[in-house]
Write a structure and sequence with these properties.
7 strands, globular, 5 helices, alpha/beta, single chain
């Protein structure tokens, strides 16, 4: 996981099931707004896609939310509780191996879209683009026991740009 700048806050949760992960994600989603970037870190099967499903549940996304391992970027349309529409991008960089591939898929443009919420799995493949001076949320999924996971959420505020 990227080590975020010290100008943020950290929350930590323990998930013992898929339903726990979905519940934590739905609660977390209440604070999201267009422009937010959520960088997800963790091994295969750690719960990243399940967390994205929970966020999409909060925003009443009607499509089936699945990992975009082969399509790389999925776009969903959801709604805030007040009925306002929101676009959510779900990006899976598992198969990306170089900065050129990131460029070819339009990753920088996707991440910089100001009117969408972006959720990026396997963010370590794009750390250089996620360390730009903007607001980001880093979520790390780590095993805590055979059936439990620690979900660590770090909110990073932008550095002042001179």
């Amino acid at each position: 996981m990227v080590t975020p700048a010290p100008n943020g806050s950290v929350e930590e949760y323990i998930s013992r099931s898929e339903e726990d992960t979905l519940r934590i994600a739905r609660s977390f989603a209440q604070s999201l707004k267009p422009g937010d970037i959520i960088a997800l870190y963790g091994d295969l099967g750690a719960g990243k896609t399940e967390f994205v499903r929970g966020i999409c549940q909060y925003f009443h996304v009607e499509e089936l939310v699945s990992s975009p391992t082969f399509t790389i970027i999925n776009q969903y349309v959801g709604t805030f509780p007040d009925g306002e529409e929101v676009v959510l991008y779900h990006v899976d960089l598992y198969r990306i191996k170089s900065p050129k591939e990131l460029h070819d898929i339009g990753f920088a443009e996707c991440v910089m879209t100001p009117d969408a919420i972006k959720m990026v799995e396997w963010s370590e493949h794009a750390d250089q683009l996620l360390s730009l001076p903007h607001y980001a949320i880093f979520i790390d999924f780590a095993p805590d026991a055979e059936t439990a996971r620690i979900i660590r959420i770090t909110h990073v505020k932008p550095e002042k740009v001179h």
